[in-house]
Amino acid sequence: MPPPTGARLYCDFFSPRLERGIGLVPVRRLPYSSEQVTEELHGTDVLVLIETDPPVAFFAYPGKPSELAPPQTRLVRLAGPSENGSAALAALADLMGARAAAVRQSAGKSELPKGALTPALAGAVIAALLPESAIVVDEAVTSGMAVGPLCQAAAPHVWLSHTGGALGLGLPMSVGAAIACPERKTLCLVGDGSAMYTPQALWTQAREGLNVVTIVFSNRAYAILNYELQRIAASGGPAARSMLDLTRPEIKFTDLARGMGVEASRVDTAEAFAVELRAALAAPGPRLIELALG
């Protein structure tokens, strides 16, 4: 048997579809920011590209690199985006005489957390309660950065995410997933800013009786834009900052959802969220849970 290669398996941060969960081969998403990707790949000798392109920054910022592979890293394209990566990997394994069993994802912690809600605690609740074969639509953006890794060790599920800056994609994507797979539960993870782009999708969920649980991460701001401004040290003046604020007036997602025919609740603790999520997963049809993040 050949010696271990020390290889790590990554996917792009904006990967459209991933099969994840217990018993499946775990794949690490590259981080969102260019600085984090550069740190993650530091010291990598060879980067083998399979149905993807070399990692690049999402935004082009002055003084920051756009191409994120370390300069000393050799890039090897095993299969292009339009080619059969699985067949290429199988051929490579045969060529190398690889016979070792693939490492599979083990179960994570099953106990439910307690305390005031944070994205990480919300992610722990979702990971513990996620039903097998669920479809997770991720447009939680900043909050989703904490949720996604925790759900890696959840029951087997499909993880769908946007592949660019199409804000508002999450709610209509969840409609499409639920129509395509009505026998499976769909969870839509969405930030409050993103949810305001396409709230009419809630009406469609109610009209069609879709099995969608919409989880709104309410931090009352366009947090991803604030994050990007901080990265380039551009705080802006009061008028600019106010444009990224969602408190004047505060959006009441429970009222918005009920007005479109979707049962809704608002929680601010991990314990209350677990109660509401259990009920939503057990009931047919659409539900919305707003998470009031501290």
Describe the structure.
The protein is an alpha/beta fold and 294 residues long. The chain folds into 2 domains: 27-96, no CATH class; 119-292, Rossmann fold (3-Layer(aba) Sandwich). The protein contains 11 helices and 11 strands. Helix 3 packs parallel to helix 4 (144-151) and helix 3 runs parallel beside helix 11 (270-282).
Overall shape: globular
Whole-number radius of gyration? 20 Å
Terminal CA distance: 52 Å
CATH superfamily placement of the largest domain? Thiamin diphosphate (ThDP)-binding fold, Pyr/PP domains
CATH topology of the largest domain: Rossmann fold
> Helix count, per DSSP?
11
Low-confidence stretches: none
Average pLDDT rating: 90
Helix and strand pattern: EEEHEEHHEHEHEHHEHHHEHE
Largest sheet: 7 strands, mixed
Strand content: 15-25%
Strand order across the biggest sheet?
2-7-6-8-9-11-10
What percent of residues adopt helix (DSSP H or I)? Answer: 25-40%
Q: Would you state the CATH class of the largest domain?
A: Alpha Beta
The helix-and-strand class reads: alpha/beta
Number of domains: 2
Fill in the keyword field for this structure.
294 residues; alpha/beta; Rossmann fold; 2 domains; seven-stranded mixed beta sheet; two-stranded parallel sheet; 11 helices; 11 strands; globular
